[in-house]
Amino acid sequence: MHLSYMKLAYNDCSPLGQFILKYMREEDLTLKDLAAKAGLTRPGLRTMLEKHGSPTETSLIKLADAMNVSPHLLFKLKHQNEIENPITPDAINFFIQAVEKLVKAIREATKDLPEEKRPDNDEILLLAVKTARMINY
Length: 137
Known about the structure:
Layout: E1 2-3, E2 8-9, H1 15-27, H2 31-38, H3 42-49, H4 57-67, H5 71-84, H6 89-110, H7 121-133
Antiparallel strand pairs: 1-2
């Protein structure tokens, strides 16, 4: 099954992601619907589907509550994914390089803004990290 509207193939999802997608199909929910039901953002929930997604404990508890399942099950699926799909040093290096390039690009793109509208270093770094996290390593 290919989820073209999400640009994510079912087999490319983590065990947690596959469980979430199955639930969404059974309950006829969209990603937006389930995110709202769980009190999560749609991008945050989508990241949970990915093999290198790393949801927080709080997010997993909220999601479990919304899905009416045990949080233990979701924690187990997250842990299973960490064993099956470990983050490699190459992926970490690629991520760091991507963040560095994005910081440079954001600085270049905002250099002509008035100082009061220009993002500070922390804002630039945060934006670069958030953007780099969207890249599929």
